[in-house]
Fold:
Amino acid sequence: MGKQLIIAEKPSVAADIAKALGGFSKEKDYFENTDFIVSSAVGHLLEIAMPEEEEVKRGKWSFANLPAIPSHFELNPIEKTADRLKVLTKLIKRNDVDALINACDAGREGELIFRYIVAHSKTKKPVQRLWLQSMTPQAIRQGFSKLKSGEELQPLADAAMCRSESDWLIGINGTRAMTAFNSKSGGFQLTTVGRVQTPTLAVLVEREDKIRRFVSKVFWTLEADFLTPEGNHYLGKWFNPDWKKNEADPDAKADRLWTLEQADAIQQACLNQPAHVEEESKAQQQQAPLLFDLTSLQREANQKFGFSAKTTLGLAQSLYEKHKAITYPRTDARALPEDYINTVTETFQQLQHYGHWETLVKPILNQYGIRPNKRIFDNSKISDHFAIIPTPQLPKTLNELETKLYELIAKRFMAIFYPAAEFLQTTRISRINNLHHFKSEGKILVKPGWLMVYGREAQDDDAVLCPVDTKKPVQTDSIEVNEQATKPPARFTEATLLSAMEGAGKHIDDEELKAAIKEKGLGTPATRATIIEGLLNEKYVIREARDLIPTAKASSLITLLRGLGIPEMFSPELTAEWEYKLAQIERGELSRPTFMQGIVEMTQRIVGKAKNYDSDTVPGEYAVLKTPCPECKGEVRENYKRFQCQSCSFGFWKIIGGRQLDVEEAETLIQEKRIGPLEGFRSRLGRAFSATLLLKDSGLEFDFGDPTQSDTPAEPVSSESLGPCPKCTHDVYEYDNAYYCSQTLQKKCDFRFSKIVLQRSIDRETIHALLHKKRTPLLDRFISSRTKRAFSAHLILKDDASMGFEFAAKATDEKAEGTAEKPVRKKSTTTKTATKRTKSV
Structure:
């Protein structure tokens, strides 16, 4: 009998599996014993792409080449992990390997990673599935005793591939179509869209629109200080007991008065008057919050510690993989399996030895008990994974941030096994002349229950009302009239945006779709952090303190999609429908070809809407600038593409250099004739740059801060010469924004080299090597403006003093691997001598 190859998602997991099973010897990229070989991917190793012969080389941003719908998808190795793919392919094809075990993360993405590797290798060897919820040695060994068949997980694999391919089709075609539309008037404006990214952005833009349109209203409240016969004081707030909620006026509240005259009249009528007191006390209970899923954990960590969703996910992954201290974090469940009581008991037996938690854990083990409870143990509330809880393995060497997150998870876990907190809620109504009513509320903590876990053993005095004899009147000692104003909706933080993404389906009318998105929301717990980071990276959103604020570019995109009539690109319905159908695929109720045919039709419809729109502008809600036209003093209005005077020809484009100006920037530009320096511009080749914008009679112009244009020559950053100018042999120095020849200051030379090339910073040492040796060492992290992929190259100095790239051609492999559906284009099997080729910067 041959060996079984176990493929994990990450090297650390492979090492844990080898350690749990035991008896392995360590090779360079894998572990091996008499029965098993254990190796791993490093996340995704392959990505789907258009077949090479069908991909458009030039003009892909043109409507002429849209929609881009491949006859099949090819699987391309991801360059930075290509070596790892070669290792796995070689192991899969070993003659002594007769079966594979998928040990990638238990979920849709883990299934996709493994299935793509298998498809690339073209193997027909049988597959089994390891499904792990925890990374402790015991859990791993138990998982191997309950392996699932590959056929059993085929519906999950189909759903995963459908999600991947449909995201590609909608994302690529939507992005190219919106970019083509926005670039019709010249220039290039990259406009990215995505199935989850864009509806999430629409949530932010809608909130910002409400904030912008909000008109604050002044109102008044009254607060009375009452004096009891015993000499005690308590406060009461005036309210109208007959008030009823009015949906048409959300600002109206029972304690608000809308004129100062009303407030003053009540104050005068009540001051120094006796009040009769009625009081009611009710016992209340408050249960501990549910266990964490990933979204609620990210939300709580953002509120308590300011962690971004990305940071929380990274810390949770470390606690799971590296420290084995928590269960699988990428979960959307908040309950545990019904047969998990013994494991929970074992976990608490270990937790009592962590820090000073013995006094918190012992009551759970000895007094409250661990028994069946549907709030905690419920199989019906679990899909692929259960709630995030500690494992029986205590962490030993956590850093500060890991400690904060671990204790947040562990305390939530302990709290849910404590009894409910008990309060005595007191409501006191003080009536003056039976006309005016003042409410006082107090809460007394009777039994702390689960609040003990968080250090709440006593009630704050401020929350307790002083005693009063309701048979005796109290005196109205003083009354304050307070002027206040209504506030606009709060901007989203990562915590509140995660909640909005999770509950994005609540306004969907279709009950089936609402049920589908109720389970998933926008994105999944594992992807929401990436979605938010993507919006930040694309400059659709900026972060100020903890607030997430959509930019003008974001508002423009949502305006465009609304104007083109493509609601499926920005409303939750698209995600809801997809999640509903993907769930059907996972259950075997819908076929993969049927789903993908619907996606192709949707892609064609989206591209057709943009391609056939017969106007350069689109309808929307646009601003009127406060600053008048500088030429005729007329009104300047915003439209989809321009800021334009309504009385003369003055105006300028909103988008310049791939960057969109917002209204405030346009105001400044008109008033001061310049603004900047601003970031986020892009050249025609896609290179990022910064510049100041100047408003001139001929239109907008860039000012790059060239020292020759300054009234006072700029000073170099350092007096140290970096080398001879390749044009005039004088010295080259570093300035704030670029490297210049010293003769540039006297306008005798124009040599200039940017500090950023294809999104990569160029430091002093690199320029020194370039000027002295005409060639830099091999540099990495350049980002291709065409493919958006990272690459490495040498910078070279040509004979004409221009810059270029130099690439070393790679020796090709013996054979390129293919996909599951159709073979990929084969590369030459001839090994060539490495040659050099250059490309101008």
User: Anything to note?
Assistant: DSSP finds 20 helices and 35 strands in the chain.
